[in-house]
Design a protein that fits this description.
The chain is mainly α. The chain is built from five helices and no strands.
Length: 150
């Protein structure tokens, strides 16, 4: 029971952290970026990636070693829907991550480099799409927790 509680609590904190981190990225990634903000975006995005990885590790650990066990989750369409949504969030995050890496690389080569506002706006749209899918995950999780698979 303690293992399930610790895994569940950790999983929830990590997922809420993802919401906070993507919100920070969206706030930072607005037209008129400064060099310092570009560097911060790179750091925040790296944190987003690390927390995402931890969400996966802890989430699967919970599915395997939690109270319900792998048999419950592995055959549950809602579990796989959550996984699919999370993969979708990850795929949507690739474009902004690549942009942040590119911007930081150009900034190192040219300290005066700043990305065009149109490019920043385009990446914000991708981040908003990420949040849209991310918001669906707790909704599906609530249905999963209540056994709503029929």
């Amino acid at each position: 029971m303690w293992t399930d509680f610790i895994l569940a609590a950790t999983h929830h904190v990590l997922v809420f952290s993802l919401f906070a981190i993507i919100s920070v990225e969206i706030v930072y990634a607005k037209p008129g970026l400064s060099a310092d903000t570009i560097r911060r975006l790179g750091t925040v995005d790296a944190l987003y990636g690390m927390v995402s990885l931890l969400v996966i590790v802890v989430g699967f650990s919970r599915a395997i070693w939690g109270l319900r066990g792998w048999d419950y989750y592995s055959g549950n369409i809602l579990f796989w829907t959550k996984i699919g949504l999370f993969i979708g969030v990850g795929l949507l995050s690739l474009k902004p991550t690549i942009a942040f890496l590119k911007w930081n690389g150009r900034l190192k080569a040219d300290p005066a480099y700043l990305p065009p506002d149109a490019e920043v706006k385009a990446n914000r749209k991708w981040m908003h799409m990420e949040t849209t899918l991310l918001i669906l995950i707790p909704i599906v999780a609530a249905a999963l927790a209540r056994g709503m698979t029929d």
